């Protein structure tokens, strides 16, 4: 063995020095709390998946007794429901398979080959195996974009069965047209949700005999947000740099979360918001489609990271569809007015069921005055709002629903009472007694919406009658400009 020439020893020493300097520049050896999703039987974070939360983990239990009121008998059931669990939209189905495959391959490469995983807070071997075996379900193609899934069907079918058990006095006997009023928006997922609900009530396949009302052209009852340019303008404002959601996306807390997620997955750079959202969306969808299974994509987040992602969504919804948008409540005028009109009369129909979308449920809850916090959620008060009432996961999971139940009571002073249920849990208002509300008080509280002037309240009275109202403005602008240009040319 010959000794190494001194020059090589020097070079080796130099290399060692450089290496240790480089690794000192990447103190990426720790990131977050140690967490192993595959070995967590509770997985409480699945209750914080915002509007892609599974209904099963949110709704009130069938054993609940909140609906039983001494000396009162339920006499009418009015329901506003979101569709059940669905497939992703077209854009997501087109992009996600490749985006996710690339991310998965990079993460495995980071762990297996590059060995850039952190020392503390790294993914456990079981979670990595989950990810290794992940495949995009080839049955999910754009032909089925946003379709109701099998679980989505069951969401509505079993909701119907539980409500029928609770309120058997209202849901008695076979289907009789006069007793039941149903309506859904013009989408596959709400139509299928209606059918599932009907099947839950009357037996498998019974929906073919149940006639829903046709949806009118401008459905201001179920989709008021589709015909209001002011709503769209506010929605756009929420994407501006100074909106609370945008500010949160730039906040140290959120940037640190992105950095932690990236470090944990072995990346030596920060993933983009889009990349993190791709993983989160897939996690949330897969968990909602297969409630008992473990979605590999949920394993890439710790519980605390999920809470931060949930908050980001809540900031968006709060300022788009709820207390953060002063005109939101009035958009639900037609729905509140419809509810009050039905509850006012004991006559048929005794069951009213509407099948719509998350936005309508959020607008409606806002009009009811439900789930309001003393403080508004903002970009800078994440920790103060940890126990907030306004949580899109609780308010609008898949199949989210508000049921208003009319009770006929023996109380001679107030014979009619109402309980409002959100996702099968009684809503507590300070003007009701543990959820039980006097009819006179209900009328008083929602008088604003029942004075027959929804046309005036709705969209500040400026609602365009047609869907393409915004488009018309553009067409008018363009044609006005053309006229000016043409006139200028003509003058030459
Ligand atoms: C696709 O659908 C078929 C028929 O319903 C089913 O047998 C198969 O397991 C599905 N494929 C996947 C990847 O889930
Ligand atoms: C990632 O983001 C964190 C938090 O904003 C920042 O401190 C860090 O420098 C970023 N890392 C890289 C490699 O850019």
From TrEMBL:
Disulfide bonding pattern of the chain: 72-409, 283-298, 432-437
Keyword Transmembrane helix: yes
Residues spanning the signal sequence: 1-24
EC number(s) stated in the UniProt entry for this protein: 3.1.3.62, 3.1.3.80
Lineage top rank: taxon: Eukaryota
Major location (coarse): membrane
One MF term in the entry's GO annotations: bisphosphoglycerate 3-phosphatase activity
Reactions catalysed according to its record: 1D-myo-inositol 1,2,5,6-tetrakisphosphate + H2O = 1D-myo-inositol 1,2,6-trisphosphate + phosphate; (2R)-2,3-bisphosphoglycerate + H2O = (2R)-2-phosphoglycerate + phosphate; 1D-myo-inositol 1,2,4,5,6-pentakisphosphate + H2O = 1D-myo-inositol 1,2,5,6-tetrakisphosphate + phosphate; 1D-myo-inositol hexakisphosphate + H2O = 1D-myo-inositol 1,2,4,5,6-pentakisphosphate + phosphate
Top-rank EC class of the record's enzyme: hydrolase
Alphabetized SUPFAM superfamilies for the sequence: Phosphoglycerate mutase-like
Localisation per UniProt entry: Cell membrane
Bilayer-spanning residue ranges: 473-490
PANTHER family: MULTIPLE INOSITOL POLYPHOSPHATE PHOSPHATASE 1, MULTIPLE INOSITOL POLYPHOSPHATE PHOSPHATASE-RELATED
Family, similarity comment: Belongs to the histidine acid phosphatase family. MINPP1 subfamily.
Name of the protein in question: Multiple inositol polyphosphate phosphatase 1
Species the sequence originates in: Culex pipiens pipiens
Taxonomic placement: Eukaryota, Metazoa, Ecdysozoa, Arthropoda, Hexapoda
């Amino acid at each position: 063995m010959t000794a190494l020439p001194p020059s090589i020893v020097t070079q080796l020493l130099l290399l060692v020095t450089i290496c240790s300097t480089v690794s000192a520049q990447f103190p990426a050896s720790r990131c977050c709390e140690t967490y192993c999703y595959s070995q967590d039987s509770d997985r409480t974070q699945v209750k914080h998946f915002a509007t892609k939360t599974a209904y099963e983990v949110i709704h009130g239990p069938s054993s609940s007794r909140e609906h039983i009121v001494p000396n009162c008998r339920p006499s009418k059931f009015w329901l506003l429901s979101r569709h059940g669990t669905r497939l992703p939209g077209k854009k997501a189905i087109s992009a996600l398979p490749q985006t996710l495959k690339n991310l998965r391959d990079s993460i495995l490469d980071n762990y297996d080959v590059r060995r850039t995983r952190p020392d503390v807070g790294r993914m456990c071997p079981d979670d990595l195996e989950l990810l290794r075996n992940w495949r995009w379900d080839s049955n999910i193609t754009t032909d089925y974009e946003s379709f109701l899934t099998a679980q989505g069907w069951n969401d509505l079918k079993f909701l119907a069965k539980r409500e029928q058990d609770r309120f058997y006095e209202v849901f008695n006997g076979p289907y009789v047209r006069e007793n039941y009023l149903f309506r859904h928006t013009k989408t596959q997922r709400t139509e299928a949700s209606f059918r599932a609900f009907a099947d839950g009530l009357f037996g498998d396949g019974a929906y073919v005999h149940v006639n829903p009302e046709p949806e009118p052209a401008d459905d201001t009852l179920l989709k008021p947000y589709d015909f209001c340019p002011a709503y769209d303008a506010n929605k756009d404002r929420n994407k501006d740099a100074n909106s609370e959601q945008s500010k949160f996306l730039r906040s140290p807390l959120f940037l640190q979360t992105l950095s932690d997620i990236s470090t944990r997955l072995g990346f030596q750079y920060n993933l983009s918001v889009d990349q993190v959202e791709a993983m989160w969306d897939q996690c949330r969808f897969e968990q909602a489609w297969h409630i008992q299974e473990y979605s590999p994509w949920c394993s890439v987040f710790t519980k605390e990271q999920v809470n931060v992602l949930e908050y980001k969504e809540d900031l968006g919804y709060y300022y788009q569809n709820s207390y953060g948008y002063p005109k939101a409540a009035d958009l639900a005028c037609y729905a509140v007015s419809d509810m009050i009109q039905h509850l006012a009369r004991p006559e048929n129909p005794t069951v009213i069921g509407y099948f719509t979308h998350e936005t309508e449920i959020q607008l409606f809850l806002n009009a009811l005055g439900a789930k309001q916090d003393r403080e508004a959620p903002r970009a800078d008060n994440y920790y103060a709002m940890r126990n907030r009432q306004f949580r899109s996961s609780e308010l609008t999971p898949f199949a989210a629903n508000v049921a208003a139940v009319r009770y006929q009571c023996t109380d001679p002073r107030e014979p009619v009472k109402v309980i409002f249920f959100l996702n099968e849990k009684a809503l507590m208002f300070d003007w009701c007694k543990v959820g039980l509300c006097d009819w006179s008080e209900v009328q008083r509280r929602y008088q604003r919406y029942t004075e027959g002037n929804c046309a005036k309240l709705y969209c500040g009275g400026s609602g365009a009658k047609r869907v393409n109202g915004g488009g018309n403005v553009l067409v008018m602008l363009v044609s006005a400009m053309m006229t000016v240009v043409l006139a200028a040319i003509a003058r030459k």
